[in-house]
Amino acid sequence: MAEKLRTHIEKKVQLSDEEFAFVLSHFTIAEFKKNQFIFEKGEKVTYAYYVVSGLLKLLYTDSAANQHIVSFALEDWWESDFYAYFTQTRATMSLQCLEKTTVFCLSLEGYQNLCARLQKMESFFLQKSNLGFIGSQQRILSLLTSNAKERYEQLLGQYPSLFQRVSKTQLAAYLGVSRETLSRLQK
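RE: above sequence
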């Protein structure tokens, strides 16, 4: 399992065996059952999570109890309520497992220590953050400028495997359409 994390990191920066051992010492491994919440709205967010296997959804519940799926996190992705994680405040969102899921967990203290003591990891996290910012902006622009069919086709083109792993109801919530609209788009 550690090799998956190393391979992931080494897509961006190369590590010696000693450096990787130091990096690995900052992580813990956790396993969660299907439908289990890793954290829920209002709870403290202790970790950022690297998905080794499984599938997560980050969701926001509004004041009318409507659930909005902010993101899905597949294998080789990082996920958390990053605002709560970095500011050490309570979660505004919930993180739920859609499948049995194994993650590497990184505390904020561990993250800060890695960045302070190993410049390669600071570079790694900066690159990952930048890609996350780009992805978030692209999602916002898609929601603002694309119609439902275009958003559906973009998602299908980028993440076709998601359509076999996520229910139509959840795909519809992610795309911001009703389940009926999604059914019409799939024809």
